[in-house]
Amino acid sequence: MEPQSIDKEELIMKKTQKALALLISVMLLVSIGLAGCGNNTTPAATNTPTSSGNEPAQTVENVTVRFGMWGSEKEINVYNELLKGSESMFPGLKLEIQTYPSSADFWNILPAQIAAKTAPDIVKLTNEGAYEYIEKGMFTPIDDLVAQAKLDMSAYADSAKAIWASDGKQYGIPVSVVPAMFFINKDMWDAAGLKDYPTTWAEVKEAAKALTKDGVKGICINIHEYHFTNYALTFGGGWGNGKTINSEANIKALETIVDFYKEGVAISPQEAGFGWDGEVFANKLAAMSTGGYWYKGYLDEAAPDINYVVIGMPEGTTKGSTSHSDAWVVLKDTSNPVAAVKAAYYLTRDEALDKIMREVGINPSKPALSGNYFEVNPEFKPIEAMVPYAKDFGYPSDTKKFIDTIVPAMQEKILANSDKSVKEILDEVQEQFK
């Protein structure tokens, strides 16, 4: 998710821990209740799939699938248009939107909705932190459902599908896939007499030295898991969902971040008095920063005069980048899972993805449409080549615990000059996830 909303999401995580525990309890009770009473929640006009997964596609007759989402007013209005016409693709299938003010409201309200059988059947989520919910069993794997519904998934990018897969099972139909980006203030770059844009972190460091002057630092590095992850992937590392936290590649990546600060060419949002890296970049207190597609809308409003360029994520020892992806997932206790996956498929049809791309600003999960995205957003063209190798975040299933362990330790290392080495920090974090 966007770094400008990550601080908010960290607060959301804290607020929703009790809700998540309650949700699991409610789901268990509902399951027990259904087992004792028989499955009376399945519409009479449908055929409930059995466990073999080899049955023919369900007949969808007069089934209404509720889809839950939160977002801007514009995005919700777009989806109110996109839900129309579903019966032209799947006769008898109707869609109904359920909106929530935020993800926090969704997770807080969901337990009561499950108990009352008013919960949505599918919901649109972002991949950052989704692994935690997959591990808690809140979503239904869709492989068998896709087969029963006879849906063709070949049009979706393999990289996008991989983001929504876990332990060999597919959990979402992807809506979008957008790699991370590296932003450069072009006016500052030109004024420093610099020429070619950097392709490696070593080149970034040399450029940062030339750009650090007159109260401006060469680079903003937010001491935050999103930015750690992008550096880690460029060194061939990653968190491995908690299994590879203290790998040599991750140690080298975080040492690279520390070295930028030791050289005096980096600044954090905390040091600048701001909440996130985009604000530092917009206020021209740093000439470069790791970021994402959300910078565009923010800079258009906060710093319309800023002249910037976007390049692919610089390399450490290899090409690497995170990838943001939204997807529709089927909630565990939906009464008609095949109808639900058909609804998700309909909401990601070409017409829908094209409209969302043009009006909301996402890069479609289908390569055939991605070329149009870079025509609509030509400044992002340099990151097109990153789509095939951009990866999921790979956070441990207890994402909050991971964040609450690694971020304060790195803040102390960078901002308070802790004597603890990066290796010692990552070893201690790894101990929490054995």
What order do the helices and strands come in, and which of them pair?
Elements: H1 3-37, E1 63-69, H2 73-82, H3 86-89, E2 93-99, H4 103-115, E3 122-126, H5 130-135, H6 143-149, H7 158-163, E4 165-166, E5 169-170, E6 173-174, E7 178-179, E8 181-185, H8 186-191, H9 201-211, E9 219-220, H10 225-234, H11 248-262, E10 266-267, H12 269-272, H13 277-282, E11 288-291, H14 294-302, E12 308-311, E13 323-324, E14 326-330, H15 337-346, H16 350-359, H17 367-376, H18 399-415, H19 422-431
Parallel strand pairs: 1-2, 1-3, 9-10
Antiparallel strand pairs: 3-14, 4-5, 6-14, 7-13, 8-11, 8-12
Helix pairs in contact: 1-4, 2-16, 6-15, 10-11, 16-17, 18-19
CATH topology of the largest domain: D-Maltodextrin-Binding Protein, domain 2
Spatial order of strands in the largest sheet: 2-1-3-14-6
Number of structural units classed as domains: 2
SS field, number of helical segments = 19
CATH class of the largest domain: Alpha Beta
N- to C-terminal separation?
27 Å
Name the average pLDDT. Answer: 87
Strand content bin:
5-15%
What name goes with the CATH superfamily of the largest domain?
Periplasmic binding protein-like II
As an assembly, this protein is single chain
CATH architecture of the largest domain: 3-Layer(aba) Sandwich
Low-confidence stretches: 1-18, 28-59
Q: Structural class, please?
A: alpha/beta
Helix content: 40-55%
β-strand number:
14
Characterize the overall form: globular
Radius of gyration: 23 Å
Q: Tell me the major beta sheet.
A: 5 strands, mixed
